[in-house]
Amino acid sequence: MTLSNRIETVESRLSEACRRSGRKREDIQIIAVTKYVGTEQTVSVLNHGLLHLGENRWQDAAAKWLAIGGDQAERRPDVAGQAVWHFIGSLQTNKVKEVVGRFTYIHSLDRPSLAEAVQRRAEHLGIVVPCFFQVNISGEDSKHGLAPEQLIPFARSVANLPNIEPAGLMTMAPNEAIAERSRPVFRGLRQLRDELNAAAVLNKPVTGLSMGMSGDFEIAVEEGATWLRLGTILVGRE
Predict the structure, then answer these.
(1) Would the pTM count as exceeding 0.85?
(2) How far apart are CA 61 and CA 56, in angstroms?
(3) Residues 185 and 147: beta-carbon distance below 8 Å
(4) Which domains are delineated in the chain?
(5) From CA 48, how far away is CA 73, in angstroms rounded?
(6) 206-223 pLDDT, tens digit each
(7) Cα–Cα distance, 110 to 93 (Å, whole number)
(8) Between 20 and 30 A from 122 (CA), which of 12, 112, 183, 195?
C-alpha cells in the first residue's frame, strides 16, 4: 500500500471508531511514529499533512530532525509543514540534554529524578515542556512507567516544577493478538486520569490520554484516547 492508501484506511477506521463511541474526530491527534523509516519517507509523511512525528531515541531521530527541521534546525525546502516532535520512548536521565529543546512533547515522564532533570534543562533553555506521565497500567515487568498508586504523589511533586507542563497520561497496552483485550488497560488509564483531576494536585486539570498503537488504536479511541501513536499501519517501514 502507498502512504496515501494507508492514511485513507486509518482515517476511515478512526472515523468509524469515533462514530461508535460518540466522539469527534477533531478531538483526536495522530502521531506518525517514524522510527522505522528514514528521512525521505518522513518528509513524505509531513507532506501528506501529518505534522506530529514520534521517535523513541535521539540517535535514530537525529538525521531526520536535522534534515527536516526542528526548533534549532533549518527546514528543507521540499518539506511542506513544520514538524512537531514527540519523544515517545523511555528517557534516560543522562539523555535529557539531547531531547529537551528538540522534542516539543515528552510522553514518558515516570520518575522524580527524570522530572528534575527535565526541569533543569528546560529552565536553562527558558522553555516549558509539555509532558505526559507514563503509567504502567498492565503491571508488566517489561513495561516502563509509574505504578497507578504512585501517580498522584508523583503529580504533586511535578506541580512544583514550573518548566514542566503536565499534558496528560500515557500507557502502553500488552501486545495482544486480539485488540479487545487491551480495553481494560485503556479504560484504566482514563479512570486514573479522572482520579488525578479529582484529586486536584496539579495547577489545572489534564485532558490528554496518549494511548493506542497500530494494533489497538480503535479500542483506545473508544476508551477516550486523545493522542494515537501509529507506526507501521500508517507510515510503513523500510
Answers:
(1) yes
(2) 8
(3) no
(4) 3-235 (3.20.20.10)
(5) 21
(6) 999 999 999 999 999 999
(7) 11
(8) 195
